[in-house]
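Email to the structure team, subject: Pyridoxamine 5'-phosphate oxidase family protein model.

Hi all, the expression group asked for a predicted structure before they design truncation constructs. Nothing fancy, just the tokens so they can compare against earlier work. One-line instruction: predict Pyridoxamine 5'-phosphate oxidase family protein, return tokens.
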Amino acid sequence: MASESSGKPRLEELERAECLRLIAPGGVGRVAYDDGEGPTVVPVNYAVDGESVIFRTSVSGRLNRSLRTAVMGGDVRAAFEVDHLDETTRQGWSVLLRGGAHRLSDEERDAAVRVDPWPGDEREAWFRLSAAEVSGRRLRGG
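Reply from the structure team: attached below.
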């Protein structure tokens, strides 16, 4: 009878510090939120600022409308996920941040790390998602 470790990749939990280290370079991640019609996930360019991620979106977009609150600086529950997968080796990692997101004031935006969105149109709504929870997993070769 073959053992479970017969060349199959292993899944391991990652510590908070390792999760933050993995996403530190920035790039593309996904914001998960409720848009009023149910769970929604959209890709965004992001940058890491401490234990938060900064991302931008269009003022007229659904993401801005869903995460904006009537209270300046008020948070909306959201999640943010980044992963890196190598399909050839079947290895990689995934990091999930859960917490509150809020639109940045002009002063917060001026002090925030820079995020350069890939799309060519305007992305003038800046958000910070502060991580209340950070979790991650890595899939390693067996």
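The chain has one domain: 11-140. Helices lie at 16-23, 62-67, 106-111. Ping us if the truncation boundaries need rechecking.
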